[in-house]
């Protein structure tokens, strides 16, 4: 078996966007953000199927206005999201069938590319767990509660983690099951596998692989699309 599956998590409400709809359904170049995300995986030769995790009250809307409208064929299952991102990922993992590598990706991160997907699958097969990302451009400070700077880590030791985060299926599934049982809460999936003694290989993502989170990100996203022939074709 050499099947690769991506779980696209799109159940969050995105409060920082301050919009009256889920941020994944806001438009970039007259098409929803989630459309652009799905399109990359739909076209990828490295991904066999997509599992889409959505809020319960948005499933029918997404089917009509994105999946059916734009003929996304690789979506094998649509799963109802949970109360947290972590629960949404568990729901997605439980829906996976036969699969070797699982990629977990943010629905609001539309500028992923095929090279990053391919590298993630390669390193997941080699090491069991990996994540893409970039070295921060800014100097990072560790701040005390009082507001003063406590420490300045060396920038070349820091890494801004993006998605997809890629895993051998049995590793991420078992780690999530343990975390659920022990009520361990994490901000991303690499934290969960690290908790259960799996090392995570970090590889180069892209500074363009941003997550659309705030209104300012929509402006940046429009510029990225303007300059990206690959995404627009």
From TrEMBL:
> What's the protein name?
2-C-methyl-D-erythritol 4-phosphate cytidylyltransferase
* Chain positions of site Positions MEP for the nucleophilic attack: 155, 211
Q: Name one Pfam family in it.
A: IspD
What GO annotations for molecular function exist for this entry? 2-C-methyl-D-erythritol 4-phosphate cytidylyltransferase activity
Tell me the protein family, please: Belongs to the IspD/TarI cytidylyltransferase family. IspD subfamily.
Q: Which UniProt keywords apply?
A: Isoprene biosynthesis, Nucleotidyltransferase, Transferase
Q: Which Gene3D superfamilies match?
A: Spore Coat Polysaccharide Biosynthesis Protein SpsA, Chain A
Question: For this protein, what is the EC number?
Answer: 2.7.7.60
The site annotation (Transition state stabilizer) covers 16, 23
Please explain the role this protein plays, according to its UniProt record: Catalyzes the formation of 4-diphosphocytidyl-2-C-methyl-D-erythritol from CTP and 2-C-methyl-D-erythritol 4-phosphate (MEP).
Task: Report the source organism.
Answer: Clostridium aestuarii
The reaction(s) annotated as catalysed by this protein in its Swiss-Prot or TrEMBL entry are: 2-C-methyl-D-erythritol 4-phosphate + CTP + H(+) = 4-CDP-2-C-methyl-D-erythritol + diphosphate
Q: In which pathway does it act?
A: Isoprenoid biosynthesis; isopentenyl diphosphate biosynthesis via DXP pathway; isopentenyl diphosphate from 1-deoxy-D-xylulose 5-phosphate: step 2/6
